[in-house]
Amino acid sequence: MYKAIIFDLDNTLLDYDRCETDSMHLTGRQHGLEQWELFTWDTFWKTFSPINWVYWSERNERKLNIHQVLELSFRDTLERLERDIAFATVLAGTYWEHFCRSCHFEEGARELLSELHGSRKLAVISNGIGESQRKRTASGGIAHLFDAFIVSDEVGHWKPDRNIFEIALRELGVDRSEALYIGDSLRDDYEGSREAGIDFCFYNRGKVRLEERFAPRYVVERLSDIRPLLQL
Asked: Is 17 exposed, middle or buried (0-12, 13-18, 19+ CB in 10 A)?
């Protein structure tokens, strides 16, 4: 039986997409984006999302912090939509405030954590930003459930680097054979746990078809399906 269960956070325990969307809509309403002439959220998201992904992906190489990533993303979006780019700093700040308070759970996540708490050691390994990940889990009332909380920007290692998994094992005080890692990313989570020698459960929330090169120990499409695997 596993002594420790380690989770990815976004799109495993928390519904990142919903958190992002709600935070953006709150920002838009607060600053009147929806009142702009010819404004539609569809156009905004199709413009913002790819720009934001590039800045996020390049943040380490370019030494950008999250506030710079957001400000640049909003700036380029406003420019392409032919709006005043001076508004970018305000939008970025408001969005970040809302996002750090957002905590929408994946279905069954809170129940699974509550059932595991006390019988197994619990941890998070996240490639997110420490400020938001800690505030969001606190907002959702689950921060106290974790025995270790490892965030990439705080430890200087990013999944799939095995070092971030090694840090979690050390903080939990368990051997790699005694831990199970649960995540939704075949690149970051599967590859990282495989390199670290930790059993991996793929939370296949998108019901993707696995290529033969991927061989997770377990595959589930709902978090509740993890219960029998852990003999709960």
From this structure: exposed
